Protein backbone atom coordinates (compact mmCIF):
# COMPACT_ATOMS: atom_id res chain seq x y z
CA UNK A 1 0.00 0.00 0.00
CA UNK A 2 1.34 3.44 -0.95
CA UNK A 3 2.51 5.84 1.75
CA UNK A 4 0.27 8.71 0.54
CA UNK A 5 -3.08 8.08 -1.11
CA UNK A 6 -5.25 10.86 -2.52
CA UNK A 7 -8.52 9.30 -3.60
CA UNK A 8 -11.10 11.10 -5.78
CA UNK A 9 -10.68 14.41 -3.97
CA UNK A 10 -13.10 17.15 -5.02
CA UNK A 11 -13.42 20.49 -3.27
CA UNK A 12 -15.89 23.34 -3.68
CA UNK A 13 -15.84 26.68 -1.89
CA UNK A 14 -19.26 28.06 -0.95
CA UNK A 15 -20.23 31.68 -0.35
CA UNK A 16 -23.59 33.36 0.16
CA UNK A 17 -23.90 34.13 -3.56
CA UNK A 18 -22.08 31.35 -5.37
CA UNK A 19 -20.03 28.18 -5.24
CA UNK A 20 -16.58 27.78 -6.77
CA UNK A 21 -15.15 24.41 -7.77
CA UNK A 22 -11.47 24.36 -6.80
CA UNK A 23 -10.60 20.68 -7.39
CA UNK A 24 -12.28 17.86 -9.24
CA UNK A 25 -11.62 14.12 -8.89
CA UNK A 26 -7.95 14.28 -7.92
CA UNK A 27 -6.33 10.88 -7.41
CA UNK A 28 -2.67 9.93 -7.07
CA UNK A 29 -0.35 7.97 -4.81
CA UNK A 30 3.17 8.52 -3.52
CA UNK A 31 5.62 6.04 -2.04
CA UNK A 32 7.63 6.53 1.14
CA UNK A 33 10.62 8.77 0.46
CA UNK A 34 9.20 10.04 -2.84
CA UNK A 35 9.22 13.75 -3.72
CA UNK A 36 6.17 14.92 -5.71
CA UNK A 37 5.59 18.45 -7.05
CA UNK A 38 2.36 20.21 -8.00
CA UNK A 39 2.70 22.58 -10.95
CA UNK A 40 0.03 24.50 -12.83
CA UNK A 41 -1.64 27.84 -13.60
CA UNK A 42 -2.47 30.23 -10.76
CA UNK A 43 -5.78 29.38 -9.15
CA UNK A 44 -5.78 25.71 -10.17
CA UNK A 45 -6.14 24.44 -6.59
CA UNK A 46 -2.56 23.35 -5.82
CA UNK A 47 -2.43 24.99 -2.40
CA UNK A 48 -5.99 23.88 -1.64
CA UNK A 49 -4.95 20.28 -2.25
CA UNK A 50 -1.88 20.73 -0.05
CA UNK A 51 -4.14 22.07 2.71
CA UNK A 52 -6.40 19.04 2.33
CA UNK A 53 -3.41 16.68 2.61
CA UNK A 54 -2.35 18.59 5.74
CA UNK A 55 -5.80 18.18 7.26
CA UNK A 56 -6.36 21.95 7.41
CA UNK A 57 -9.25 21.76 4.92
CA UNK A 58 -11.74 18.90 4.64
CA UNK A 59 -12.53 17.94 1.02
CA UNK A 60 -16.05 18.19 -0.26
CA UNK A 61 -15.67 14.61 -1.51
CA UNK A 62 -12.96 11.96 -1.52
CA UNK A 63 -10.31 11.26 1.08
CA UNK A 64 -6.59 11.38 1.89
CA UNK A 65 -4.68 8.63 3.69
CA UNK A 66 -1.10 8.86 4.99
CA UNK A 67 0.20 5.44 5.99
CA UNK A 68 -3.45 4.38 6.07
CA UNK A 69 -4.29 7.19 8.53
CA UNK A 70 -6.39 10.27 7.98
CA UNK A 71 -4.77 13.73 8.33
CA UNK A 72 -5.45 15.03 11.81
CA UNK A 73 -5.12 11.71 13.59
CA UNK A 74 -3.25 12.16 16.86
CA UNK A 75 -0.22 10.02 16.08
CA UNK A 76 0.35 11.46 12.59
CA UNK A 77 2.95 14.23 12.30
CA UNK A 78 2.70 16.51 9.26
CA UNK A 79 5.36 19.14 8.58
CA UNK A 80 4.27 22.28 6.67
CA UNK A 81 6.62 24.95 5.27
CA UNK A 82 5.30 28.13 3.68
CA UNK A 83 6.70 31.09 1.72
CA UNK A 84 7.18 32.99 4.98
CA UNK A 85 9.10 31.38 7.81
CA UNK A 86 6.53 32.40 10.48
CA UNK A 87 9.12 32.31 13.23
CA UNK A 88 7.83 34.02 16.37
CA UNK A 89 9.83 37.28 16.55
CA UNK A 90 9.70 37.46 20.37
CA UNK A 91 11.17 33.96 20.77
CA UNK A 92 14.77 32.91 20.27
CA UNK A 93 15.70 30.52 17.46
CA UNK A 94 16.04 27.75 20.05
CA UNK A 95 12.54 28.43 21.39
CA UNK A 96 11.14 28.54 17.85
CA UNK A 97 12.74 25.22 16.89
CA UNK A 98 11.44 23.49 20.02
CA UNK A 99 7.90 24.88 19.89
CA UNK A 100 6.42 21.92 18.01
CA UNK A 101 7.86 19.50 20.55
CA UNK A 102 6.37 21.63 23.33
CA UNK A 103 2.92 21.67 21.74
CA UNK A 104 2.91 17.91 21.12
CA UNK A 105 4.22 17.19 24.63
CA UNK A 106 7.22 15.39 23.14
CA UNK A 107 9.96 17.62 24.55
CA UNK A 108 12.53 15.53 26.39
CA UNK A 109 16.28 16.03 26.86
CA UNK A 110 16.82 13.59 23.99
CA UNK A 111 14.39 15.22 21.54
CA UNK A 112 15.70 18.68 22.47
CA UNK A 113 19.28 17.60 21.77
CA UNK A 114 18.30 16.08 18.40
CA UNK A 115 16.30 19.17 17.43
CA UNK A 116 19.09 21.61 18.23
CA UNK A 117 21.62 19.44 16.39
CA UNK A 118 19.49 20.03 13.29
CA UNK A 119 20.52 23.69 13.32
CA UNK A 120 24.18 22.79 12.84
CA UNK A 121 23.33 20.14 10.24
CA UNK A 122 21.50 22.88 8.33
CA UNK A 123 24.50 25.21 8.53
CA UNK A 124 23.26 27.38 11.41
CA UNK A 125 25.99 27.64 14.04
CA UNK A 126 25.65 29.40 17.40
CA UNK A 127 22.29 31.00 16.59
CA UNK A 128 20.22 29.36 19.37
CA UNK A 129 20.03 32.50 21.49
CA UNK A 130 19.53 34.90 18.60
CA UNK A 131 16.15 36.29 17.54
CA UNK A 132 14.71 35.96 14.02
CA UNK A 133 15.33 39.63 13.22
CA UNK A 134 19.06 38.98 13.64
CA UNK A 135 19.13 36.40 10.83
CA UNK A 136 19.00 36.74 7.04
CA UNK A 137 16.02 35.48 5.06
CA UNK A 138 17.83 32.32 4.02
CA UNK A 139 18.94 31.60 7.59
CA UNK A 140 15.38 32.12 8.83
CA UNK A 141 14.05 29.59 6.30
CA UNK A 142 16.69 27.10 7.45
CA UNK A 143 15.60 27.66 11.04
CA UNK A 144 11.99 27.10 9.91
CA UNK A 145 13.08 23.84 8.27
CA UNK A 146 14.78 22.75 11.51
CA UNK A 147 11.56 23.54 13.41
CA UNK A 148 9.56 21.50 10.90
CA UNK A 149 11.92 18.51 11.05
CA UNK A 150 12.28 18.64 14.85
CA UNK A 151 8.96 16.83 15.36
CA UNK A 152 10.10 14.06 12.99
CA UNK A 153 7.16 14.53 10.58
CA UNK A 154 5.79 11.57 8.64
CA UNK A 155 5.41 13.78 5.57
CA UNK A 156 6.68 17.25 4.62
CA UNK A 157 4.45 19.68 2.71
CA UNK A 158 6.16 22.64 1.03
CA UNK A 159 4.15 25.61 -0.27
CA UNK A 160 6.58 27.70 -2.37
CA UNK A 161 9.06 27.88 0.53
CA UNK A 162 11.84 29.50 -1.56
CA UNK A 163 9.86 32.00 -3.65
CA UNK A 164 10.60 35.03 -1.45
CA UNK A 165 14.37 34.47 -1.47
CA UNK A 166 17.05 35.81 -3.80
CA UNK A 167 18.08 33.38 -6.54
CA UNK A 168 21.43 32.30 -5.09
CA UNK A 169 19.94 31.66 -1.65
CA UNK A 170 17.07 29.79 -3.30
CA UNK A 171 19.46 27.46 -5.17
CA UNK A 172 21.48 26.80 -2.02
CA UNK A 173 18.34 26.02 -0.01
CA UNK A 174 17.02 23.72 -2.73
CA UNK A 175 20.18 21.64 -2.40
CA UNK A 176 20.00 21.72 1.38
CA UNK A 177 16.35 20.65 1.58
CA UNK A 178 16.88 17.97 -1.08
CA UNK A 179 19.85 16.47 0.78
CA UNK A 180 18.06 16.67 4.13
CA UNK A 181 14.94 14.91 2.88
CA UNK A 182 16.99 12.16 1.22
CA UNK A 183 19.04 11.70 4.40
CA UNK A 184 15.94 11.32 6.56
CA UNK A 185 13.95 9.44 3.88
CA UNK A 186 11.02 11.85 4.13
CA UNK A 187 8.09 11.86 1.73
CA UNK A 188 7.52 15.39 0.42
CA UNK A 189 4.96 17.32 -1.64
CA UNK A 190 5.95 20.69 -3.13
CA UNK A 191 3.68 23.39 -4.56
CA UNK A 192 5.60 25.64 -6.95
CA UNK A 193 5.24 27.89 -10.00
CA UNK A 194 8.88 27.26 -10.93
CA UNK A 195 9.28 24.51 -13.56
CA UNK A 196 13.03 24.27 -12.95
CA UNK A 197 12.56 23.89 -9.21
CA UNK A 198 9.98 21.13 -9.72
CA UNK A 199 12.29 19.17 -12.05
CA UNK A 200 15.42 19.67 -9.95
CA UNK A 201 13.85 18.52 -6.68
CA UNK A 202 11.21 15.97 -7.65
CA UNK A 203 10.80 12.35 -8.58
CA UNK A 204 7.45 13.11 -10.21
CA UNK A 205 5.57 16.24 -11.29
CA UNK A 206 1.79 16.56 -11.45
CA UNK A 207 0.69 19.26 -13.88
CA UNK A 208 -2.71 20.69 -12.98
CA UNK A 209 -5.27 22.08 -15.40
CA UNK A 210 -7.11 25.34 -14.84
CA UNK A 211 -9.91 25.72 -12.29
CA UNK A 212 -11.42 23.42 -11.30
CA UNK A 213 -8.05 21.75 -10.89
CA UNK A 214 -7.59 18.31 -12.37
CA UNK A 215 -4.40 16.39 -13.04
CA UNK A 216 -3.74 17.25 -16.67
CA UNK A 217 -0.53 15.25 -17.04
CA UNK A 218 2.11 13.47 -14.96
CA UNK A 219 5.83 13.80 -15.71
CA UNK A 220 8.38 11.34 -14.34
CA UNK A 221 11.78 12.90 -13.73
CA UNK A 222 14.47 10.83 -15.52
CA UNK A 223 16.58 8.52 -13.36
CA UNK A 224 19.66 10.31 -14.70
CA UNK A 225 18.64 13.41 -12.68
CA UNK A 226 17.33 11.81 -9.48
CA UNK A 227 20.72 11.07 -7.97
CA UNK A 228 21.96 14.62 -8.48
CA UNK A 229 21.55 17.68 -6.33
CA UNK A 230 19.12 20.26 -7.74
CA UNK A 231 22.01 22.51 -8.78
CA UNK A 232 23.77 19.68 -10.63
CA UNK A 233 20.55 18.51 -12.29
CA UNK A 234 19.96 21.95 -13.82
CA UNK A 235 23.12 21.53 -15.94
CA UNK A 236 22.03 18.29 -17.64
CA UNK A 237 20.53 17.84 -21.15
CA UNK A 238 17.68 15.70 -19.71
CA UNK A 239 16.74 18.65 -17.49
CA UNK A 240 16.49 21.00 -20.46
CA UNK A 241 14.46 18.51 -22.49
CA UNK A 242 11.92 17.96 -19.69
CA UNK A 243 11.78 21.70 -18.99
CA UNK A 244 10.78 22.36 -22.61
CA UNK A 245 8.11 19.64 -22.57
CA UNK A 246 6.52 20.94 -19.37
CA UNK A 247 6.78 24.57 -20.50
CA UNK A 248 4.89 23.75 -23.71
CA UNK A 249 2.13 21.96 -21.81
CA UNK A 250 1.87 24.74 -19.23
CA UNK A 251 1.87 27.43 -21.91
CA UNK A 252 -0.93 25.57 -23.69
CA UNK A 253 -2.96 25.47 -20.47
CA UNK A 254 -2.42 29.19 -19.88
CA UNK A 255 -3.47 30.06 -23.43
CA UNK A 256 -6.55 27.84 -23.18
CA UNK A 257 -7.40 29.53 -19.90
CA UNK A 258 -7.09 33.00 -21.44
CA UNK A 259 -9.41 32.02 -24.31
CA UNK A 260 -12.06 30.46 -22.06
Automatic annotation (TrEMBL):
One of its GO terms (molecular function) is ATP binding. Pfam families: ABC_tran. Signal peptide: none annotated. CDD domains: ABC_NrtD_SsuB_transporters (cd03293). Coiled coil: none annotated. SMART domains: AAA. Keywords: ATP-binding, Nucleotide-binding, Transport. Residues 4-235 form the ABC transporter domain. InterPro entries: AAA+_ATPase (IPR003593), ABC_transporter-like_ATP-bd (IPR003439), ABC_transporter-like_CS (IPR017871), ABC_transporter_ATP-bind (IPR050166), P-loop_NTPase (IPR027417). This is ABC transporter ATP-binding protein. The lineage of its organism: Bacteria, Bacillati, Bacillota, Bacilli, Bacillales.
